[in-house]
Model the fold of this input.
Amino acid sequence: MKEHPDGPAIETIGLVKKFGDTKAVNGVDLTVRPGTVYGVLGPNGAGKTTVVKMLATLLRPDGGEARVFGRDVVRDPDAVRGRVSLTGQYASVDEDLTGTENLVLLARLLGHRRADARRRAAAMLDAFGLGEAADRQAKNYSGGMRRRLDIAASLLNTPDLLFLDEPTTGLDPRSRNQVWDVVRTVVAAGTTVLLTTQYLEEADRLADRIAVIDRGRVIAEGTPGELKSSVGAGAIHLRLHDTEQRAEARGLLEKTLPGAEVELDSDPVALTARLTGDGSAGAAAGHAARALAELAAAGVTVSDFSLGQPSLDEVFLALTDAEPGTVAGAGAAGPGATGDGAPAAGDETDRSTTTVKEPAA
Amino acid sequence: MSAPTDTRETTAPDPAGAATDTTAAGTNGAEGTPATDRLRELLITEHRPPRPSPFSASLAFGWRAMLKIKHVPEQLIDVTAFPIMMTLMFTYLFGGALAGSTSEYIQFLLPGIMAMSVVMTTMYTGVAVNNDIEKGVFDRFRTLAIWRPAPMVGYLLGDAFRYTAASVVILVVGLILGFRPAGGPVGVVAGIALLVGFSFAFSWIWTMFGLMLRSEKSVMGVSMMVLFPLTFLSNILVEPETMPGWLQAFVNVNPVTHLVEAVRGLMHGEAAMGDISWVFIASAVLIAVFGTLTMRLYNRK
Done:
C-alpha cells in the first residue's frame, strides 16, 4: 500500500454551498482515510453531487473548508486536479467521438505521447469490454457501455482519489457488478474512492465508512454495520405454500426469534419478522436458519424466503423525524420509480434485499 | 502487491482473453476475473506522465474539434453553401447597379464578402461551446490539470480550419466569376491569413456568450444582433462615401471596415500598413478583453 504522509484523503469542515437562497450543502464535515471507499448515501437532491463537485474543483464553496490530500480546493485547485478523477452522474464522454477517440484525447490531455495514448486507450477499452465498440461513436453506446467508457477515462492515469457520482444509477445488474469489480480493483491498488449512491446495498457492499446526507447535512456517519444496527437488524420475509399455515408460522417465528416483531403482509401467504438486536449480517442469518429449521420441523412449507437489510428508507426514518412520505426519492422511490433501470436485488419490494434465490450473492 | 502463491496467470498477457472478458466479468464478483486482472495491470500508480504543455493541450482540443467535423460533416454546410450563396446573391444583385457590371463589382466585393461570411461563421463557436456545456464532458475537462484556456483555444483552432475552408470556397467561386486579384497568390494567402487571424480573435466574444447564455437559441439571437450591423454597416457592399455622415462615423470605427480594407489591399497588391496594424491591434484587444472574460466565466461555471 502507498503511504500518504499528507493526512486524510479528504477533509471538509463546515462546507457550505448556496444556490440562490437554498443551501444545497449546509455545513458538511467529512474525513476520508486514504485507501478506503467512502460512501455518501442520500436521496436525490440531498446535496451529494454538490459536495463531489466542490471537492473536484468544479464548484467553489460558499463557506467552510475542503482539502484533498492536504491541498485546499479553492486556493490550490491545480494540485487537487492532478490527483483526482471524476465520473459524473451523467456520463461525461463526448458523444460525437468514438470510444477510442475519447480515450486518446484524454490520454493526450493527461500527458501521454501520441503512440502511448493510442496503446493505452486500446488496452483500457479491452479491459472494460469495449474492444469491439472501440470505433463506434459513444452516442451509439448503451447506458452501461457509456458508464464503463466514462470510468475507463477516469482511470487512464490512475488517480489517487476517484469520485464516482452515482456510478450505478440506471445500470442493469451485470453492468452494476462490473462497476463494483472495478471499484474493488482500484482500491486494492491504493486509490481512495468517494462514492455517492442512493442504494444502501451498494454502500454496504463497497464502502468502509458511510455518511448519510439529507438536505445538505450529514445526519449519520459510521461503518455500514453501525448504521444498520442503529435501525434494527433487518427482516426475514417469508412466503408460504399454504395460507392456512400462516398463523402457525407466525407463532413459531415469535417463539424462535425473541423480540422479533412478526407482521402479516397484505399478501395472504406472506409474513415478515423484523429482527432486533445485533445488526451484523451473520447474526441475522443465524436467526433465519433457526427459524427455517423450526418451520420445516413443524411441517410448514416455505415457498420463498429472503433476508432483508434495513432499507435506506428505514435508515432515514430512524435518523430523521420525517414522515414516510417526505423521504421521497429515498429507498422507497428507488430506481424503478424514477424510470431508471433497476439494480437486481430487492427492487420488487422497497427493501434492499439479499434473496437466497440470487445465485452469486 | 506481489502474490507469489497465486496460481492464476495474472502476469501472462493474454490478448485472446479480451473476447471472453465481458461474459466473465460481473458474475464472479471480486474474484480476479480476466477483466479485473487486465485492469490491475493497467493501473498506473507511479510514474504518471508530466502534464502536457499549454500548446499540446490546445492542440489536443483542436484535434477534438477536427474529429467533430469528421463525424458530423453537415456542420460544414455553413462554411460552404452559405458563402457560395452570399457571393452569388450580392454579385448579381448589386453588380449592375453599383459598379456597372458584375465583373467590375466582384473585384471590389469579393474580399468583403469573404470577410462577411467568415465573420458571420464565428457565431457557431458560441453555439458549440454552449452545446458542450450542457453535456457532462465539460466537467471532465475542467477537472483536468491542464492550461485552463486550452479547451477554448482548441475550439478556436478547429474553427480556424472552418474559416480557412470558407475563405477558399469563396475564393474559388470568385475566380470562376471573374475575380482577378492583382496581389497574386501571395497577396491572396496573406489576405486570408489576416482574415482567419482576426476571426480567431473575434470568436472569443462568442466563447464568452456561449458560457454566459443559457440556451443555444439565445446565443444565436445575440450573435445576429451583433453580426448583422457589424457586417452590413461597413464598407463590404458599398463605398462609405455614399452614406450619410452619421453612418460614416460608425462605419469608419467598425473593426470590420478596417479588416476589409486591409484584406482588399493585400489581395489587390496595394496593402495599407495602417489598416493592417489596426487589425492586429483590434485582434489583440479582443483576445485580451473577451479572452479574460471567457476564462473568468469558465472558471466560475
Summary: The radius of gyration of chain A is 23 Å.
